[in-house]
Amino acid sequence: MTLRRFLDRIETSDRSLVVLNRQAPTPVQRMLGNLFENQPISIEEIEVPSGEEDLVLVVEDGSIVAQSPLEELQDSILLINSDLFVTGARELEEIELPSVIKELDDVPFFLRGYPHSHSEKLLLILLSRYIERRAWEQQGGTLRTSFQQLSRIEDEVGTKRVYRTLDDSPVDVHVYGAPGWEPPRDSTITIHAGYEEDFLDSWFVVYTPPEGDEHIALLALEESANEWSGFWTYQRSLVEDIDEYIMRRL
Question: Which of 10, 121, 125, 144 is deepest in the core (most CB within 10 A)?
């Protein structure tokens, strides 16, 4: 039994993206298309007289469930690269997730990293940072994060900075991966090291708050080198099931 069991809990969604009255250059639209190229989400452009320009909508069953200016997607994911997060150039409190990305929860995804794609894996990085920010803002609860290799916490300046910030908060932080890093002596971070499949082939960030409905989990499993299948969800029961599995088995 592995974390892969949870992939079967997500069904294909009928949500789609609509770009309304696009004025942005064609390359921007192409980047948006590339970001969702392998996802079960269609993208179309429509022109509506007197409608807002460069607006991205999430549509489900004929209803608009979320909207964001195209500029927000440009600034948060389309026109940046992973170095912004790895080097720590963007602080934790500066991480923003556009509404149209937030509302693509419970949609199964397949993402590729470099060299297959320059942008798809950014979605995983952005979502990870967003969940870490949620935990930091709540100032409590439990955060469980996998790194495949625990040494990444030390090697990536941005990641190191984020987890120092979380370490200074009341959040109960647990990190998972192959051995290779030990927290400072005064740290409250708990490490879980191993070489099993769940340690080496998973990318998860799971946050359970002290109370309320702020539960959120990102789960991605590496299918082959730098290719990931997974989902993110706000379903409390599903987040709690993933959290319990990790707590008991890793």
Answer: 144
Tens of pLDDT, residue by residue over 139-179, are 999 999 999 999 999 999 999 999 999 999 999 999 999 99
| The two three-digit tokens of residue 54, written as one number | 């460069």
202, 219 contact by CB (below 8 A): yes
Tokens describing residue 57: 């909508």
Distance CA 23, CA 31 (A): 14
pTM for the structure as a whole: 0.94
* Residues 20 and 57 sit within 8 Å (Cβ to Cβ): yes
Report the residue count for the chain: 250
Residue-range domain boundaries for the chain: 3-249
Q: How far apart are CA 22 and CA 55, in angstroms?
A: 7
> Cβ contacts of residue 217 below 8 Å, gap of 6+?
131, 204, 205, 206, 207, 232, 233, 238, 239, 242, 243
